[in-house]
Amino acid sequence: MNQTDLEARLKNLPLGAIRFFQQIPSTNDEAANWIKAGCPDVALVVADEQSAGRGRGGRKWYTPAGSALAFSVVLCSAGQIGQLHEYQNTVRLNGLGALAVCQVLQKKYQLPAKIKWPNDILVNGKKLAGVLAEAHWIGNELAGVVLGIGINVATASIPPADWDTLNPLPFPATCIEIVLGASVSRWDLLHAVLEELLIWCVQLSEARFLDAWQQNLAFQGEWVQIVSPGSDAIIKIGQVIALEYDGALQIREKSGELSILRVGEIHPSGPPFGGFLVRPVDSSKK
Ligand code: BT5
Fold this sequence. Notes:
27% of the residues lie in helices and 29% in strands. The chain is built from 7 helices and 12 strands.
């Protein structure tokens, strides 16, 4: 792939501009610099390989050459930025990226994809993709949001077990070609995810976006531990109930009390001793 071919592949999508790199440290960093220099709305940065791909909280994201999709979309139109002003967090924007990837995996490849709140895509309980939404300010002005997405496509995209000794994989990883048992065009996949993203990004404020996200949540009704990102410290243990209006996660603790979480990472856990079962809330009745 090169810049000209990628532009030709994506020419029917309403993208502001495209930059393609064979190798860069991180597409999110490149997009952030582009915002500072002035870039159009819905600008796209794609890299075949990232040498310093990032996850949340300073964690690393593995993107070797020729096997994964790594890209960032800059969103700076009023509606998308309004989400951040309204909710003061990027959770809904993580949900936007996660929902787009999840639905493409389901519709285009018939894979049983689920969203592990807030930003991971799981297939058969293994991590296949991750999303990193970052807000960028110039002075007091919110200049744009960078929505970074990494998707494992071919087997080589799966991080080796000893790849990050500081943060051993909390979840086993997988890729599309392993679960599908067939080869996949990364550029068709990119086109499909961008198409889905563009459909949802103008509906970020609508109930149907929250409903679609909630319907695709992994661990609905199951007992989970919420740990602080990048550490093993358990913040809460509870059952996954529903999403709040801003995309925060609602869980019910053993005491029956409802807790709202805006940061954290889900780890599955068995029901605590004496636990009880509650049905997840039906979002259509909200
Ligand atoms: C994420 O963070 O899952 C967000 C990943 C976002 C990556 C994209 S690629 C394009 C754009 N440019 C960037 O620099 N980043 C974005 P988090 O939930 O913090 O998960 C990070 C953890 O996932 C790491 O600590 C590893 O354990 C694990 N991990 C790293 N690379 C992986 C991979 N390729 N597949 C599965 N797990 C991986």
